[in-house]
Amino acid sequence: MDLMPIARILAVFALVLLVVAGLLFLAAKFNISLGKLPGDFVFKRGNFTFAVPLASSLLISIVITVLLNILLALFKK
Known about the structure:
Blueprint: H1 4-29, E1 40-45, E2 48-53, H2 54-76
Antiparallel strand pairs: 1-2
């Protein structure tokens, strides 16, 4: 059984987690709070709260897409 493909997949996941952790540290350092961006909606009524983080979800999706495309381009060579 060839373990090289599994090792590459694990390495990619580790790199992605490392980059995400770095971005979270930077967001904390520059006081960027996800979930409170313009476009994130919070509805409160009594003791019920409903949050719809549209802008935060879009931002996270774009960042992850760009990072994965970069990583896949690097590993494709």
